[in-house]
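A common beginner's mistake is to predict each chain separately and then try to dock the pieces by hand. The better habit, illustrated here, is to supply every component at once so that their relative placement is modeled jointly.
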Amino acid sequence: MLGRRGALRFLALPPYVWLAVFFLAPLLLIVAISFRPETGPIDFDDPWTFTIAQYQRILETPAYLRRLGMSVVVALVVATAATVLAYPIAYFLAFRARERAVFFLVLLLIPFAVSYLLRVMAWRLMLGGEGAINSLLEWLGVISAPLDLLIYSPVAVVVTLIYVWIPFAALPVYAALQRIERGHLEAAADLGAGPWTRFARVTVPLSLPGAVAAFFMVFIPTVGEYVTPSLVGGTEGYMYGNIIQDFFSQAASWATGAALAVIMLLLTLALVAVALRLIDVRRLAS
Amino acid sequence: MPARSNLVRRVPAILAAATLLLASCTGAEPNELLVLEWAGYEEPDFWTDFATANPDTNVEFEFGSNDAEILSLMQAGSQSDIFHFYTGWQQFYVDEELVREIDVSKLTNWDAVPEEMKALGQIDGKQYYIPWDWGFTSILYNTEQVDDVTSWDVLFNEDYAGHISMWDDGPGAVTVSAYINGWDETAITEEQLTQIEQDWKDQKPLNLHYWDSEYDNLCPEVISGDIWVAYAWQGCYATALAEGVPVAYADPVEGRNSWVGLYGISAETDSYELALKFLDLKLAELTCSNAVTIFYYGCANSEVMAGITDEILIEAFSIDNPDILETTRFTPLVTAEQRDAWTAMWTRVKAE
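With all components supplied together, the output reads:
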C-alpha cells in the first residue's frame, strides 16, 4: 500500500516523465548537437566528436549578436506594452464585469480559436500599403501616400506581437486581481483612501506578481520569435529567431542552429534571473 | 461457449495476419504512397492522371519549404517514397545513398521528355531522377515605373529603393552576383564571396522585403504595385499579366536562369513500382497540361509544351523566341561546402 506521500509521488510521475522525454531530452540533444561538427541532421552512427567551432563562429559574427540585442529590445518593448495594455482588461474582468465576467473572458479567448498564422496574416492586411490603416488615413486626408513604416519594419513586428500577446498577458494579471481580498480595499476606503489611492496603494502592489508573470510569459518566447518577423518584418525586422530558423531549414546546418539556440537560451535565462533578483516577487506577493 | 467466442474475437486478427503473410509471400507492395513535396503540389490537379488510373491508392503528402529542408528530412529518415527538389541538389542524395535508380524502361511517357532534361536527372550515367516542372528565373518589372531592364544589376538600382524584392536564398544571390560580375558560379573564390556578401549588404535597404513564397508574398505585391522590380519565376509574370498588370520579364544580357524540378524515389521505399507509376503519370498529358495552364509552370513533357496556344503562356515561356535557350543558364550542381558557405553568407547579409 502506498502512503499519502507515495501516492502523491506516483501521481506526479507521469508529468515528470512527460517533461523528461519531451522537454528535457530534446533540450539536452540541442546542447549536444551544438558541440558536434557540422554534419546536417542527427545521425547516431556518426562519431560524436567535441567542437566549439560553431560558438566561435557565432561570437565572431557581430551581425548575429546585434540581432540578438535587437530581439531582446523588441521583447522588452512588446512584453512591457502587452502587460500594460492587458492590465485594464484584467481589471475590468476582475472588478467591473461581475456576473458577465465569464462571458467577457470567453470573448478575450476567442482569438485563440483562430490560428496564430492567420492572426498575423490579418495584420498584413491591416498594415499593408493598401491596407485598412493606410486607406483610412488617406481617406481622412492625414497622409497623401501610404506609410512605409506600417508594414515590413520592426514597428510592424512590435505592433503585431503586442496584439498577439495581450490576451495571454491578461490571464495571469486577472488571476492575481481576483485573489485580492475585497476587505483590503474596503479597509483602505474606511481609512479615507480615494479610488486612485486605493488603486495605487492596494490593487497595483497586490497584483504585481501577476503582472510580473505576464511580463515574462511574453518576454521569454518573444526573444526567439521568428514567425511574425518573417511575415511582417521585412529586411529590417529580421530577428535572432529567424537566424536560428535559417540555419535549421535553409542551410541544413543543425549544429550552428543549435549553438545559436543555446546562446539565446542562456542569455534569456540570465536576464530572467537578474530581473527576478531585482524584483522580489515573494515580497511583492506578501 | 468461451472457447468459441475467443476464436470469434480473434478472427479479424487472424485474417490480418494471413493477409500480411500472403502479401509478404507474394512480394506485394502496399497500395499507398507518401510524397515529400513543396506546399501546393499536393493539389489533385498536379497528379490527376495517377488518381484516375489508381483510384484505390492512398496518396499522402508531407512538406518541405525549401531544398535544404527536403534534403534534411530525407537525411533524418523520412518515410516518403518519392521526394521533389530542384536543380543544384542532385548529387547529395546519391552521395548519401538516399535515392534509388529509376528504371526508365517502365515509363510510358519517358520519350516525351527532352534529352537535355533527362540529362539533368543523371549522375555518373545513371538515371536517378525524373525531371518534371521547370521554368525561368529573371527580372520581373513594372513597365510603368521602371525603364527597360537589360541586366540583373537593376536589383541594385537605388532609383527603385523600397520597391525591389530579392528571393530569400543564398545560392540564388550568389548566382545573380556571378552573372553580373561575369564569374563562374561553380568556382566562386573566397574573395569573390566576400565581395558578394558586401554587395548584398549594401543592396539590403533597397528591398521592400525578401520574398520566400511566390504566390504569398511576391505576386500579390507585384499586382498591388508595391513591388516594381523582383527576382522572379515566370509563374508570377504570367499571373500578373493575366491580372492586367503592366509587367515585363527581362532578357538580361547576362542571360536568364532556368531551374528544373526533379523527382527521386527513396532508397528505402517499399513501393518502388507504385512510385514509378506515379512519376510516369506525372508526365502524362493532362497532369502536365494542368501544371502549365493552371499553375504557369513548364512541364517536362515536350508535346504538352509544343501544344501551348495561350498568348500569356507563350509570352511567359518565351515560346516565340527561338534564341531564348541559347541565352539561358541552367542551375549547375553545387557542392555541400558551397551550399553551406553561400547560405551562411546570406544569413549574415540578412542579420546585418
